[in-house]
Design goal:
It catalyses: N(6)-dimethylallyladenosine(37) in tRNA + (sulfur carrier)-SH + AH2 + 2 S-adenosyl-L-methionine = 2-methylsulfanyl-N(6)-dimethylallyladenosine(37) in tRNA + (sulfur carrier)-H + 5'-deoxyadenosine + L-methionine + A + S-adenosyl-L-homocysteine + 2 H(+). This is tRNA-2-methylthio-N(6)-dimethylallyladenosine synthase. The N terminus is likely disordered. Helix content is 33%, strand content 22%.
Length: 482
Amino acid sequence: MEKIIEENKQGTSLVLEQKEENAKKLFIESYGCQMNFSDSEIVASILANQGYNTTQNLEEADLVLVNTCSIRDKAEQTIRKRLEKYNAVKKINPNMKVGVLGCMAERLKDKFLEEEKIVDMVVGPDAYKDIPNLLKEVEDGRDAINVILSKEETYGDIAPVRLNSNGVTAFVSITRGCDNMCTFCVVPFTRGRERSREPQSIIEEIQDLWLRGFKEITLLGQNVDSYLWYGGGLKKDFVKATEMQKATSVDFAQLLDMCASQFPKMRFRFSTSNPQDMHVEVIEIMAKHHNICNYIHLPVQSGSTRILNEMNRQHTREEYMTLIDNIKRIIPDISLSQDMITGFPTETEEDHKDTLSLMEYVKYDFGFMFAYSERPGTMAARKMEDDVPDEVKKRRLTEIVDLQQVHALEKTKRFVGQIVEVLVEKDSKRSSEHWSGRNSQNTVVVFPKENYKPGDFVNVKITDCTAATLIGEAVEYSTIMQ
């Protein structure tokens, strides 16, 4: 639930540059959070070396892969419908092989092979390097499965193929797995324990992206603030590290400082943060570097300390508010976004009012808000009754969304009359005569194209806004271009 799920990207089929020598066709589509989309790039890179070119035509595919999400029931239902579609195509093309990747693969491994007869291969998030071997099993007429969770795998040695890329922004994974056992979340069970990627491999991947013209990197992880490299292994085993390993370890603040210092003309973002792990050092590094964006996605889930305790969140309402105070003190023009779950088991009207009052205190720029849905395998599903009626969940969710909309408009209005730095990313959705990009605070900015192009950093004077978009006119190139 901590990972942002962008609805407009769900089910995107991925395409990369075709290799003439590759004769087989791969159709791969992704659901869920950005970690899944990033993983699909790793899988495509592995299969490109196995003779596969991607296609967007499902009917011509030799291999169909769906990268899955277990965060919400809606995602699982969508994927089951996609499997029905694959089944229909497989009747026309019986040689087509189908594989399920990702979090649902790990959680529902036996069901996929035994009940969903369409599925030939089930591959968990830590087993993508084993896909070539699993394909041999499938070709020999056997079902193939590998959902073993790794203590070491970070895919740091694989250069992901950038799929459906705008050539301007890219994601670079820095951690895998999660140690936070939030009672509503399946991630620790589907992606395993937390481990960090070797810093030099991260720097090398960013260097490669810089040489290829990319201008903005988002450092990606289930919980980036707890990044800790001490030579490899699980985060929880750091206590067993040698004195030398501890002395030479790299935490997230150091990694962020390293990235921003070595690539001063690239912009950096990161996602997702966890309140318990976001230390003041990270905020100070953000304030130190112009090229680290003034935006933090800081999921809170509830404004009630009692509900936070039920969720096994390792922070209270008061601790979260103190963190917000520190962030705003060090970076006054920060933009903040939230994840919020309403209707968690035992949530009362008082708990709900605590959430609304926390929102009033913080005034988030953006929000990702959901009514609680019980996820099989989580501690909440095993030990708590889903006792808040659906109509109450819906009403509370509506109140949260409505309040967020008020705050969002208030937050975008603050930019009207200001000049903001924008990285041009793509055409505006509404007009081919306008560019669309984002400012440091992650707000979308639209302005007339003139002679600017994607990848340019442009100073834009804001003349108008909606709750989600800033509208303006270009003034000049920004100083980061010089």
